[in-house]
């Protein structure tokens, strides 16, 4: 049988949706997963009608579900091939094979009460096949289904839980979402300011929004999503070796708004390709940097055309050499990696200054001085300060020598400097949502 979909059940674990290609599959049958090289005991088989309806057995040609008490979501992949454990053995070349004569036979097997997980080691004690049977042996790779080609992610961002205690719940939610979404990928990541999180890849912004909304609705986990970014190619042997992804973008708009569309595209470093007239509308074709159309580009198109404009872009990505700079954001001399981004030399100063000003509005005053900076390499080109909260330590001094007041102020200043060196700035949880919801202008 071949696995083509799966989902997670709270009580039964991972439920596999399969198509039976040959033979009969019954409950309590021991099966072998070819790609993961693991063995499981079938606990339940049945049909989706659309509710799960258990049956005693399923046969060739059936579309059914299988439950094997699999609790780890990453143990099963789409396009996994399942065969009966009884017909699998190891040959003289230490390869897992099956007998061609037994592929169509039915095997009840020994009844087990627990799930077994084993790989090649479980076959080491098996008796070696005779030379006469070598011609009838079939390699498992020959009967295994080829892996499903999934679309490569083009949009990337980091996802963190608002509450650090829900980091494990977030990981479990992402694993369950990946079961029936093969194009979604993620890996662990740790940020000093936001804690444990995950670097995730998506097909586009809509895909990102769907995953974020499903995490909130289905698993009740509040998340922080960083600014979306794209993949860049870097050639280390060249000084200017950063290549930026471009996509062919088509924009349809009424004729009276075409000058606004042209201005917006050129402002975002678009390369004009051609223009087509269609009745009272105009279609523009541009090669646009993928990073420029991720944030608010469609909103700007809708705004300047009063809602009549539309935009679409192709999945095919080409890379062009660009003069890009990495912008680092510092809070009290500590780099915030999740806020770092790449920007073109034509607009990196404006983008960095805008983020610094926005952070100044969002971060509340602390007991110590907060310095927010944006820089390229070792050069700081934008800086803002948030004054600390101060107690009036001289309120109890009614007259007397001025040195008494000066001592109290100097003592307070020394305490503020110490807190500046050891204090930790608390960033608001909705920081990324507000930061990167800025208009392009």
Distance between the termini: 56 Å
Helix content: 10-25%
Q: What class would the helix/strand composition place it in?
A: alpha+beta
Number of domains: 4
Biggest sheet character: 5 strands, antiparallel
Lateral strand order in the biggest sheet: 1-2-9-6-7
Helix count from the secondary structure assignment:
9
The CATH architecture of the largest domain would be: 2-Layer Sandwich
The CATH topology label of the largest domain is Alpha-Beta Plaits
How many β strands by DSSP? 27
Task: Sum up the structure in keywords.
single chain; 441 residues; alpha+beta; Elongation Factor Tu (Ef-tu), domain 3; Alpha-Beta Plaits; 4 domains; 22% helix; nucleotide-binding
Description:
This protein is α+β, with helices and mostly antiparallel strands. The protein folds into four domains: 2-99, Beta Barrel (Elongation Factor Tu (Ef-tu), domain 3), CATH 2.40.30; 155-230, Alpha-Beta Plaits (2-Layer Sandwich); 235-322, Alpha-Beta Plaits (2-Layer Sandwich); 326-436, Elongation factor 4, C-terminal domain (Alpha-Beta Plaits). It is 22% helix and 35% strand. The chain has nine helices and 27 strands. The strands form seven sheets. The chain has a five-stranded antiparallel sheet. Helix 2 (167-179) packs across helix 3 (205-219). The relative contact order is 0.08. Mean pLDDT is 79; it is low at 106-133.
Quick recap of the structure?
The protein is an alpha+beta fold and 441 residues long. The chain is 22% helix and 35% strand. It contains 9 helices and 27 strands.
